[in-house]
Each structure stands twice: as structure tokens, then as C-alpha cells.
Write a structure and sequence with these properties.
This protein is mainly alpha-helical. The chain has 20 helices and two strands. The chain has helices at about 20-25, 30-50, 55-60, 65-80, 90-105, 110-115, 120-150, 155-185, 195-220, 225-230, 245-250, 255-285, 300-330, 335-355, 360-375, 380-385, 390-400, 400-420, 425-445, 455-465; strands at about 1-5, 240. It has a two-stranded antiparallel sheet with strand order 1-2. Helix 5 (about 90-105) runs antiparallel to helix 9 (about 195-220). The longest helix is centred in the last third of the chain and has 35 residues, at about 300-330. The two termini are about 20 Å apart.
């Protein structure tokens, strides 16, 4: 990684970008989140179709957080030190998009590829899943960095808001695609050991739209050259190189407020991971009365389609809530807003146990949409209040640990807990996820400090940092 401190005495600032330019530079996020939506809604179903037992699902899902933990810091460091005829960040968009598109094509076809390589379909599916996760992370990290590269600071909120909206739309498209194709007459049933056609074709569509959206950003966005960056910094950009291992030294001295927010993140992402991994099995057993061993019937695949629709719904609800976060936070405060959102998300997950009519499960997704919008924004808004600007990059990198670690722990323990404690009734564990969100809300209210409660000496340290 690179921890960069900038000394700016320049009168020249980055020009404002139009809304169209901001949309253009973020359009690739729509394709990336479409791929994520397809993965989140269908990975458990695909793995189950290929023979994975419910207690094994969380182990396979470990691929995502582990690859994110490894890939994003490396790509971030490489991007900071890259310049090519294509640009600084765009080469990684393109590489990530191509690899992810290949993964999207291969993952649902693992059973067919098996005949070519004489390997286990389930093993190949896990390899292709890892390929997708790694390539999505290759493309995603530079998109976030591009906002900081291209926009003046006062437009940063607009830039990230546009990305949030595109995240929502992309996830909705990816989540709903299998169900839409089923309604068009494409089968959602497949022989044992294979994946249904509606899922396979959805992944094909996702691969095409991913490439189109990334290419759109590449062709419509011109990155600033190193010379232009030097002009913005009046040639006085001071870059301090550091080893990746230095992150662990900084980890020991993170601010107390960051630790508390980290605890909130732990419970929030533990709950999200639970939902992503176990919803299909939960719906199949709890709402449709299937045996936990039934992973191939039409009813099970209907549960898979419903999972995608529900995930699309909470992403859809997150879009309007993203617009409401700022006025709500101004009204009641940031930590109160986040606690309220987590409370709604926890109640939403728990309510899935009690709402037996699948046509009413959309009600549960309202609370989850509020929670998801807030999880993507409010912890970071509170975090920047208590860390000095000169440590912003390294502390943001460390903060990602509080997202990855709960997913890894849940991935290791979730399957055995569902199998041994809950008798393979995954809905009981979804309720546990809801309780975790409630705990996150409680921790936010009791331990996290709002802006006016931030220690004076920390605020002074932030104000004294110059660039």
C-alpha cells in the first residue's frame, strides 16, 4: 500500500465535472454490482445444485472475503504507481472486467466443463467463484480511487452518491434476471448435478453488460496525466512509500472510535453474510417445506429465484434511502441514523421467520434496504470525523478488516452451526443474523460517539493536518 501525504500550496484546483461526466466515470459500477447481484443471489443455489450440502455452503463463501482481503490492497498499491497509455485506473477496470466476464460464463457451466478436465464440478465451481471474486475486486478498487483522482473534494459526496445509486440499480438487475428469464419461458429446472438454464443465461447476460458498462467508462472518461496531477499539486506532491506490512503496525494504534465502529461493522457484516449464504436454503425449508437434502427440485429452484428477487428488492429500497440518509442524519444525528437503520435491518431479517406468506416477504426487505444504504455510507461518515487526514488511506484499509473478518468467521462456523445446532433449518440462523444487526444498533447507540462528542484533541489534530 501507499500512504501518501500531499503538500498543496497550489491555486489551481481540479475543475468541477458535470453530472454526465460523473455518471460516465461510474457507469462500470453498474456492471460490477450486477455481477455481484448474480453471485449473491445464485452462488449458494449453484453450489447446492452441484452437490454441496447446506453445512458446506458457508465454507465455499469464504472465497469472497479472503480474495477481497488479499486483492484490494495489492491493486490499490499497483494503481497508485501505474501510468499507461490507457490511464492510471482504467487498465485494471479492463483486466478485471474481462476476467470476471469469463468467470460469469464458466461458474454456472462447471458441470459441463467437468467433462473436459475430468475434475469435480463442485471443485471447479469454487475455482470459478474465486476467479469471479478476485476479478471483481480488481475492477472495484480502482473505481473508488477514481473518484478521488478526478473530482475536487467538494464534489466527492456527489461522486460516491452516484456510485451508490448505480450499485443499487446493478444489484437489482442481477438479482431479478433469473426470475425474469423464467417468466420468459426459460426453464429453472435442471437434471441433478447441473444448473438451470435461467441461471446460466442470466450469467451470460451479466457478462455482456459488465463488459459494455466497463468499456463505456473507459471510452467516455479521460484520466488526468501525471503532469496534470503535478499541476494540481503545484509540483509539490510528497509521496511516502511504505510496506504493506506497516498496516499491522498502524492497526495497533487505531483510534478508540474506530474500534467501536469496527465492532458495529463486525455484527453488521456477520448478519449480511448470513443472509447472502443461507436465504435460499432458509426459504426452501421454512417457507416451502422442503427437506434440507432437496437441492435439485423445481421447488428448490423456485426458492433460488425468490432469493434473487428478494435481494433485488432490498437493493431497490436502498436507492431512495440513500437519498434520505443526509437529511435524516442532519435531523437526528449520524450515529442515531445508523442505529435506526440497523434496527430496521435486524427486524427485517427476523421478520422473515414469522412472515410465512412468500408474497409478503418484500416487507422484510424494506428494513434491509434501509440498513444496506446506511452500512455503505454512515460508518465511513462517522469514521472520518476521528482520524487525521494524513492517516486516511491506511486507516480506511484497516477498517476493511472489520468487514472481512466477520465473514471469514461466519464462513467457518455458520455451516456447522446450521447443521449441528439448528438441524439444517437455515431460517433459524437467518434470525441469528437479525439479532446480530440489533446488537450492532445497540453498540452504535451506547458506545459510538457522535460528531459533537468527538474528543477535542482529536478534532484539533484533524484541523492541524495540512496538505
Amino acid at each position: 500500500m501507499m500512504n501518501a501525504a500531499h503538500t498543496t500550496h497550489s491555486k489551481k484546483i481540479k475543475p468541477n465535472l458535470s453530472m454526465l461526466q460523473i455518471i460516465n466515470m461510474s457507469m462500470g459500477f453498474l456492471g460490477i454490482q450486477m455481477a455481484f447481484g448474480l453471485q449473491n443471489g445464485n452462488a449458494s443455489r449453484i453450489l447446492a445444485n452441484l452437490g454441496a450440502d447446506v453445512h458446506e455452503l458457508s465454507w465455499f463463501w469464504l472465497v469472497a472475503p479472503i480474495t477481497g482481503l488479499i486483492v484490494q490492497p495489492i491493486i490499490g498499491h499497483m494503481g497508485d504507481n501505474t501510468w499507461s497509455p490507457l490511464g492510471r485506473r482504467k487498465p485494471y477496470f479492463l483486466i478485471g472486467a474481462i476476467l470476471c466476464a469469463i468467470g460469469l460464463v464458466l461458474l454456472p457451466n462447471a458441470a459441463s466443463v467437468t467433462h473436459m478436465f475430468a475434475a469435480s464440478a463442485l471443485l471447479l465451481a469454487v475455482i470459478f467463484l474465486a476467479m469471479m471474486d478476485a476479478s471483481v475486486n480488481i475492477a472495484m478498487e480502482p473505481f473508488r480511487a477514481l473518484v478521488g483522482d478526478m473530482l475536487p473534494k467538494h464534489q466527492g459526496t456527489v461522486g460516491f452518491s452516484v456510485q451508490t445509486i448505480l450499485i443499487g440499480f446493478g444489484a437489482v438487475l442481477g438479482s431479478y434476471l433469473p426470475d425474469w428469464l423464467t417468466k420468459l419461458g426459460i426453464s429453472n429446472v435442471a437434471p441433478e448435478g447441473f444448473v438451470a438454464d435461467n441461471v446460466i443465461y442470466s450469467f451470460y447476460v451479466g457478462a455482456v453488460l459488465l463488459l459494455i458498462s466497463i468499456l463505456y467508462t473507459i471510452f467516455t472518461t479521460r484520466e488526468y496525466s501525471p503532469e496534470e496531477f503535478a499541476e494540481f499539486e503545484e509540483g509539490k506532491e510528497e509521496v511516502v512509500q511504505s510496506r504493506f506490512s506497516d498496516i499491522f503496525k498502524d492497526f495497533a494504534s487505531i483510534p478508540a472510535q474506530m474500534k467501536k465502529l469496527g465492532i458495529v461493522q463486525f455484527f453488521s457484516w456477520f448478519a449480511l453474510f448470513t443472509m447472502w449464504v443461507f436465504t435460499t436454503s432458509a426459504l426452501a425449508t421454512h417457507h416451502m417445506g422442503l427437506s434440507p437434502e432437496d437441492t435439485h427440485s423445481k421447488a428448490f429452484n423456485d426458492a433460488g429465484d425468490l432469493t434473487g428477487k428478494l435481494f433485488g428488492m432490498y437493493n431497490l429500497w436502498a436507492i431512495p434511502f440513500a437519498f434520505l440518509l443526509t437529511p435524516i442524519a442532519k435531523w437526528i444525528g449520524k450515529k442515531q441514523t445508523h442505529a435506526l437503520a440497523l434496527l430496521c435491518g435486524g427486524l427485517g431479517l427476523i421478520s422473515m421467520y414469522f412472515i410465512k406468506n412468500i408474497d409478503l416477504l418484500w416487507i422484510s426487505m424494506i428494513g434491509l434496504g434501509f440498513a444496506w444504504a446506511s452500512i455503505l455510507a454512515m460508518p465511513y461518515a462517522m469514521l472520518i470525523e476521528v482520524i487525521p487526514q494524513r492517516k486516511m488511506g491506511v486507516y480506511m484499509g484497516i477498517f476493511n478488516f472489520f468487514i472481512v473478518i466477520p465473514q471469514i468467521i461466519n464462513g467457518l462456523l455458520g455451516g456447522p452451526i446450521v447443521s449441528s445446532i439448528f438441524g439444517k433449518q437455515a431460517m433459524d440462523y437467518v434470525v441469528v443474523g437479525g439479532v446480530c444487526m440489533l446488537i450492532g444498533a445497540l453498540v452504535t447507540m451506547i458506545f459510538v460517539k457522535s460528531e459533537d462528542e468527538t474528543p477535542k484533541e482529536i478534532q484539533e489534530e484533524i484541523q492541524q493536518v495540512h496538505f
